[in-house]
Structure prediction request, 44 residues.
Amino acid sequence: MTLPSRLLLVLATLALAACNTVEGAGQDISRAGGAIQQEARAAN
Prediction:
């Protein structure tokens, strides 16, 4: 496993550990998607 893959795995694990419920994980993912969309729109 390469270093970037390991780093991504660790970050994903920490992010999921921070969510108390599956619903919380869905909300976090939704917010992240919204932030990415806003940044993409601002870049255009």
